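Reopening this ticket.

The earlier resolution said the output was attached, but the attachment link was broken on my side. Pasting everything inline this time so it's all in one place.
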Amino acid sequence: MWLEDFIKPENESTDSWHKEEVQQLLDRYYNGEKNANMCKMLMMFYRMRGDEQNARRFGNEMIERLNEEKPSDPEYFKWEYYHNMGRLNVFYQRWDAAVSNYQEALKQDEVMETYFEMAGCYCYLKDMKNAEKYGLLALEKSKEDDDEPNYMWKDIGRLLASNKKFKEAIEIFSEYAKYNPTEWYPLYCIGQCWQDLGDQYRALAYYQKVLAIKPNSPHVLNNLGALAINEDARIQEGIDLLKQALEHIENESALKTTILINLSRAYAQLTDYEQAEYYKMLMLQNLGFPVEMVEEDDDEEDDENEAYDEEEPETEF
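Inline output:
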């Protein structure tokens, strides 16, 4: 899928926070040296650890202290509060609550990260119209704030591609690739967009660029195998490419599932139903289903030549 892992709801690392510094903050806090900035720091620390109770405790106290301290930039502290509460709700996958927090944060300051994370929440809510809206607002803000494309551009491109706006996505991926020539992923995405547009020649050109940076890329080998099978009916060549992709895969379970599905369907097109069933069982096993495997027989030849129409294998997005 184009939007797999658009936002990863997981704890952020607190490795950069020195234990002694955090302890000093807590000591000062309990000794009565409390202020809004100290509460903000402790709110962020506990939010990054996924400690909702303490994150909310220090966040709420930070807001209370604004009335007493009357800082020159209260909007900054309020933005920090709502944005951090939004991230906390993202961690617990409470998407509607996160959206509400981010909307309040934007009332304080129109920050690129807030627009971007709202787009991710709407993706999980399957509201792709709003996901695209806030993704494009994040992109616009990024262009105002930065001289070069940042990491968000890739995900915004994926968001547009998921809405089948492939040419707009290609423009974003191309601009990002111009400033990041050693990264293979945006080039792969451009190739995938051209493949989805039905232009296999441009897709192949970009897949070759990826292989120049990352030889034996399982993403590209999977797509090349699918193209060989679907577009040119070179089924055996496609199978060889898919098996090569399988050999070079690392820990990407979703991609492995797609490759195994493609292999099962390719063998079905050759009417080699035993091999089709074998890779189907591997796919189910990869998904976590308990299956009883039969050993693959590489020496067995299939004398049947008649193929039947099968649904086109999915390419990896």
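Reporter confirms the inline version is readable. Residues 24-109 form a domain with the Serine Threonine Protein Phosphatase 5, Tetratricopeptide repeat fold (CATH 1.25.40). Residues 299-314 have pLDDT under 50 and may be disordered.
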